[in-house]
User: Fold aldehyde dehydrogenase (NAD(+)) from Sphingopyxis lindanitolerans.
Amino acid sequence: MMSDTETHLKQHYIGGKWVDSQGGKLHEVINPATEEAASTVILGSAADVDAAVAAAKEAFKSFSQTTREERLALLDRIVEEYKKRGPDLAKSMASEMGAPVSFAGTAQVGAGIGGFLGTIAALKDFSFTEKYHAGVLAYEPIGVVGMITPWNWPLNQIALKVAPALAAGNTMILKPSEECPGNAVIFAEILDAAGVPPGVFNLVQGDGPTVGNAISSHPGIEMVSFTGSTRAGILVAKAAADTVKRVHQELGGKSPNIVLPDADLETVLPPTVQGVLVNTGQSCIAPTRILVHKDREAEAVGVIKAMFDGTAVGDPQAEGGHIGPVVNKAQFDKIQGLIQSAIDEGATLETGGTGLPSNVNRGYYIKPTVFSGVTRNMRIANEEVFGPVATVMAYGDLDEAVDIANDTEYGLSAVISGDPAKAAAIAPKLRAGMVAVNAWGPGPGAAFGGYKASGNGREGGLLGLKDFMEVKSISGLPA
Assistant:
């Protein structure tokens, strides 16, 4: 007998009900550890998106008029229901995208809760009106929001869109990644159990070319919020242009880690270089370009190599601190090609390399890999790897380090490893939306988003809430 979640994977959640697709087709989701089917999901149609938009537009009439207190109560109920489903969410992500179950149950599940808690804190203190010299600025719901989310930190990305959209009084249609759809089904079950009114949140499963494009181009959707590759984000923006909707994007990254010349490498490198290994390197902010002073390259390589050699690779269903496979064969093949390109272009392979780790004979596992002697013209210094691969690059002085750091089409995140007082002078020179000192990711409640080809807009906290709202200027009111 199928569980509710298995049944719901073959349906959409529209207007507060689980419904069959109008013309969709079934798709097998492959377990990246076994290369066998993990689940079966429906890939929906443009007609399914039309139905979800109709439900969301109807629900907007009333939900947009709810009070701050009503929305806070709803968000609190969602967090309580979410916590109950933590183990289910972890198992789903382990089987569909290969996040080891211990990591999935803590970091992946926790990131989703964090997105809601950050929004709740922002909403409590939010001023829906601001006085200025000529009148009042009012922050209002934008309308129906389309959301397209990726597979790498799936609950984090869903929460960073759904929570502020709800807090702002919007209604929404979510299209999660077809690579990892099960957690989104459980998330919809959580929202249903929490009493989200019918039509406020709608889930339409599908792929980018069909459902993603239907959302991006739909005249009934006022905003599309997309997280994924820069290539796909450009297609979303082009599809959205004809209907002049707001386009909100969190795209690719190629983050540098500037290691200061006098840094204590044994102390500062582990917490920052860890970001290349966490989630098997599948993080848009992974600080893969490790920039070290030329006199300390060998010393830095020793510390980094020891970390990578000490990282176990294994079964996502087993408890423990190991890393799992990458999400699918296409990603595996791309990463293998980038590793080979670095070898061919003359980088020094310090550990790892191509092929499967010695302890596995199937699955999309990557050897934790470190290269030194990487120069900025190499493919691996320019293309997002999205795997556990670190590249060590040497600099002569800090001006050159900043120049190398900024020499990328991306501008999502940057890391500085070393004395925070010295880092304070360098942070303003980095063309990135986030700079973290002695950590690989931003602090809690920080605005998440980037410069250049890394996207438009911000997620999380106050700025994340404002990005899901319209601004109305009202003048001529009584004093």
Q: What stands out?
A: The chain has a mean pLDDT of 97. The longest strand covers residues 36-43.
